[in-house]
Predict the 3D structure of the following.
Amino acid sequence: MMQNIPRPEHPRPDFVRPDWLNLNGEWQFEIDHGCTGRERGLQQPERELNDRIVVPFCPESKLSGVMQKDFMNCVWYKKTITLTEADLDGNRILFHIGACDYETKVWVNGKSTGFSHKGGYTPIDLDITDFVTTGDNLITVAAYDDIRSFKQPGGKQSARHASYRCYYTRTTGIWQTVWYEIVPESYIKYAKLTPDLANGTLTIDAELVGTGDFSAEAYYEGKLVGKASKKNRAVTGQMELQLSEIHPWELGNGRLYDLVLKFGKDEVKSYFGLRDIEMRDGKFYLNGKSVFQRLVLDQGFYPDG
């Protein structure tokens, strides 16, 4: 089934849970040039949008099936997800969009979540548990994008009708994977990993929802090489994990450790590498060794997707 979904891989290999569903593929779609969609009721479940798009490709691209390269001040998306009683029994439903340009609003079953996200390059994470029910649930997304206002970051998106110089065809709306996760009531919302090669440790800074025991286990090639745990009843948790084996990440040998984080019933799989980077006397050092870098700027633009 997953093989027929564009970009079927997990969008966050550094933060993987077992219960997730990729929502890429065909969505309802409509271009809203006048930004009047809310007045016309496009967010309502009974209102079907007038076109279709293949997510996560932007409507300007060929792979989206839309190929509209003119300015679009607003675009709308709709997709139905199906949840069972087991999915909702003591769990939370987290809805994610990898990136959507530029201002994003979300409705569930016609009700506004009150959520508004500005930023075309940063991920969207939204708990929609209070808006869903057992059975079919309609997700509606609206993306507002006015690149010519110069009131929002545009990067190298062209403010002219066509591409010119180093400014390219624009990217409007959803352009990275959409998915949802099923998590327990107490779960790990975020984790920052800071490896320390010199001391052979990994510091974990986590943002936690709920209460419970927070633990971590590190593995190298399947062997347990470090573990730590603590009781945590705050929204943040910090923990240092001492490693029994040191395997540096090096050029030509990207050695990686596997990491399992647990908080209550929640379990997240991740990974990390041990390396040390510094600038000293105008030189770049990796793991204490001077490395000469001859770099190339890869500024590719792929119009198909």
About this structure: The longest helix spans residues 85-88. The mean pLDDT is 94. Helices lie at 85-88. The longest strand covers residues 74-83.
